[in-house]
Design brief:
alpha/beta, Nucleotidyltransferase, domain 5, 2 domains, 8 helices, 41% helix
Length: 261
């Protein structure tokens, strides 16, 4: 019986996954806040309690994510791309291209049938291809962030906006509001602009089916609809895409623990 844990130290949230014999038995998440190291300890504790386990039951802990160095108690680390590849192939064995769209950045990974990363590309220069873009635009539109997706699905067309930069996009959105364009069409334009950035990033890598979308933004129906339209292909999404990084790290932890034995 092999029990391992993965911790994804994201810019906005800390996620933990615990795996026993390749089955996910517990998952937990919290906002990173100002003390992500403490939050990591607390999130792991909550996941252990949920699985009715103690810290001693865990064979190996692997950390990943932007704040990976904050998880000082982890036994090892893995790159975000490596964790994405492992998770994508775990959820969908047919996965060959994995897109991860989180709060602060977006990336895409190519993997083989074993979930081993072959190549990757990252869009970290601008928030226009990540979750914070939706947040900023929702504020400009005076719409709840969680309502943006369903609102955009009501649009018959998209109003054009500049997606090269959050500042330019916000300026365009304000102009459209002043012109009394329907909010649904502006919302769709926002998702289309995001999808444009993410798809051009993925096209640099090359799209090899099956394609999987993970990360917190994968839950947004508006973004998913725009991305499907843009890529012209179906996209597979796991039930809880926000935990993918932690799940990938936990799978790597299990492999490393096995190797040690």
């Amino acid at each position: 019986m092999m029990i391992s844990a993965g911790i994804d130290m994201g810019t906005q949230r800390v996620k933990v996954a615990i795996i026993k014999d390749k089955q996910i038995i517990a998952q937990s998440q919290n906002f990173s806040g100002f003390e992500p190291a403490k939050v990591a300890e607390q999130t792991l504790k909550e996941a252990l309690e949920s699985a009715k386990l103690s810290r001693e039951d865990i064979e190996h802990i692997t950390a990943t994510g932007a704040g990976v160095n904050m998880a000082s108690f982890a036994d090892s680390t893995i790159s975000m791309m490596g964790a994405d590849a492992k998770a994508g192939a775990y959820y969908f064995p047919s996965a060959r291209t994995i897109m991860d769209v989180g709060a602060e950045d977006a990336r895409a990974v190519k993997c083989d049938e074993n979930g081993v990363m072959m190549d990757f590309v990252v869009n970290a220069r601008c928030a226009a291809g990540a979750g914070t873009f939706i947040e900023a635009m929702a504020r400009a539109l005076e719409v709840e962030m969680n309502d943006m997706g369903s609102l955009s699905l009501n649009a018959e067309r998209a109003s054009p906006i500049n997606a090269s930069c959050v500042i330019f996009a916000e300026s365009d959105v304000v102009s459209l509001i002043h012109r009394e364009e329907p909010k649904s069409e502006i919302a769709r334009a926002i998702f289309d602009a995001m999808a444009e950035r993410v798809s051009s990033m993925v096209n640099r890598l090359g799209v090899t089916p099956d394609v999987v979308l993970i990360g917190g933004v994968a839950k947004d129906v508006g973004f998913v609809a725009s991305l499907k339209r843009r890529l012209g292909i179906d996209i597979l999404i796991p039930e809880e895409p926000i935990y993918a990084g932690a799940v990938g790290a936990a799978l790597v932890a299990a492999k490393r623990a096995k190797r040690r034995h």
